Amino acid sequence: MARLRLIFQRRGLSEVFGALILTFIILATAVTYSIVQMQRSNRTFEGLIEIFRTSLRRQSILLSLTYYCKVERRAIRFDGSGKDYIIVNDSESLDIESAITIELRFKLGSYPSRGEWYCLLAKSDLHSSYGLLYSGHGFFRFLLNPQRSLDAYYTPKLNSWHHIIASWNGSIAQIYVDGELAAQTERNGTLNINDQPLCIGRLIDGRYPLNGTIGEVRVYCKSLNPSEAIEHLKGYNDLEGLALYLPLDGDLKDYSGNLNNATLYGGEWVDDYRDDLKLYIYNYGDSACTLRFLAVDGEPIYWRVAWRFKWFEVADPSGTFKSKLGESAFPLEYFTFNWTGGLIYAGREGRIGFSAETEIYIEEPNIAVTIRTADGMEVYIDGRRIFDGNGWRNHEFPKIYERNVTLQPGVHILKVEWYVWEGISYASLHVTNLIGSSSLLVTGMDDLKPCSKFFSGSLVEVTLPAPQKKRFTVLLVTEEGALYTWRIAI
Asked: pTM, whole model, 2 decimals?
């Protein structure tokens, strides 16, 4: 198996990731032609770049490309017999009472029979402390003993990798599957603790053996919010609050620093969990640039979601907008926002109108997206009114408004409007079932925080899904209208 590693030097420090080095340094400047055509799987993106045509400025990016680690990562296969399991001995760091997050990457080889369960992870048994199971009735169960458990109905695709997070902050329990919130409820109290080991792949007594594969396990003594859940899905290496971290990449060491090393009984090490590609981009130009769009061989893998907010004078209680007061940007990774407490603009809390606009990129035909708001705001897609805003005007909130809209391939403009006549406001919007959402994580190397802006003199790490072939083209477009292309051979 080929192992590709990077020796990367920065600010006088060198970090060695392995023995075989494959590094490409490519100097790219903005291309000022107006069209790029690439095709993959019969999808042609001719004319796509016309969307971004603005006044182009010459900018420079230094791109260093390498695989961060193995092309294929190890994982552990459990055959469902009950003889395959992992044990982590009890320790003080695993006795968690007040807040917890369980995170795994897994795939199922089959579904459990009705009435049966798969144990992904459990601290002892079903009725003792915390754990995460999957039922033959088609739901995940987050154990929070002595509180009631939380169930999330979801059917994972067999033999495909999935990511799950079960998180609880002492009052709210949540389950995220592949970045989407699948279940949420109130659960107040503390967790039981015990002196039993933590088990992966079955319960301590041998029940509920897993037929599937696990590639990574993390346990935190803290909860995660929705944006953090998305960052973790994309591979953000969050070390804060770790109680247990088993990458399961060929060994059973705990990389949390708590020495909770595991022991494997039975099981099979397999080369099954694909790692990601890391790009390192250094902006040595004079001005900052913001990543807008990125594709590999014409396949969009990043489409930046940024709400453009504008504030307006409001003329009357029915919400007639007058002159614009100002505008700003509110970047998000998903098509969701919660606007709480209103906004004081130029010292004013009332008589302000709000407008939020962003793009939705659709790749497949006839995609039915669900638009939901709790507040009856005006919602438009490509100028077509989805909600008329009368619920907002008539103060019919909180009330859930939901509608499915079928979209065709291309770029669609989503616009939301609401206002405040007197007092403060609350507004929320959630758009779901958007396939092809960003699988890209951009991290600033100075602070290791997710970002989308490349400041002058800054270095960022861009995480891409592992490419399926050894030669491919990377296309990058910035908010400023600059276009970069690189032909990569690895």
From this structure: 0.58
